[in-house]
Design a protein that fits this description.
This protein is mostly helical. The chain has one domain. Helices cover about 70% and strands about 0% of the residues. It starts with a helix and ends in a 21-residue tail after the last helix. The mean pLDDT is about 85.
């Protein structure tokens, strides 16, 4: 079984790709992006796939009930947001309120990050990163909420992309047991590296 940091790094790669897909769409423009029929499906289907891949993480890589609940809620909201966005792109969903699934996913993810980390900010690096990720997702929910009301607004789409890239960089910074800003709680144990 790989260390938890390896699983975090795999999902960091996924969030980086999500951010790059959205940034490419913003930079190219919606009209150019949609010249290829498959491109509008790219980021929603990838988000849905990440939700599906979160289920094995919940099943095999959790060591407590609170971690299982957090990973399960992430799996559900990523799948919900991806499916809603896919339905909107495909034209199967017509009500624009389905766009609220993505800000809902951001809010649930932020709360799950904050609730499942039981140590204070400076306990160790992973504690700091979980708090940082939680607040990033909660504050970053402004962008998908703005996108729900103005779907073609480039600022909102770029904001979502930047949040995804920041989340990926934060997840890439994760290590099992490491100091944060030179501080490591004596209760955390010995650093692995």
């Amino acid at each position: 079984m790989p260390p938890a940091e390896h699983v975090h790094w795999m999902f960091a790669t996924g969030f980086l790709l999500l951010g790059l897909f959205l940034l490419a769409e913003v930079i190219a423009g919606e009209e150019v992006w949609q010249r290829r029929a498959w491109r509008p499906y790219l980021w929603p289907s990838f988000l849905f796939l990440m939700g599906v891949l979160m289920w094995p993480v919940m099943t095999f890589f959790t060591n407590s009930t609170i971690h299982m609940v957090a990973h399960g809620s992430w799996a559900q909201v990523m799948m919900l947001a991806g499916a809603a966005e896919l339905g909107l792109v495909r034209g199967k969903l017509h009500n624009p309120l389905w766009r609220l699934a993505t800000p809902f996913a951001f809010l649930v993810s932020g709360v799950a990050f904050l609730v499942h980390e039981q140590n204070p900010w400076f306990f160790q690096r992973s504690s700091f990163l979980h708090h940082l990720l939680g607040w990033t997702m909660l504050i970053g929910a402004v962008f998908p909420l703005a996108r729900a009301w103005r779907p073609n607004w480039a600022v909102a789409n770029a904001g979502i992309a930047i949040v995804f890239v920041f989340v990926s960089l934060t997840l890439f910074s994760d290590r099992d047991l490491a100091p944060v800003f030179g501080h490591l709680s004596p209760l955390a144990g010995e650093p692995h590296r």
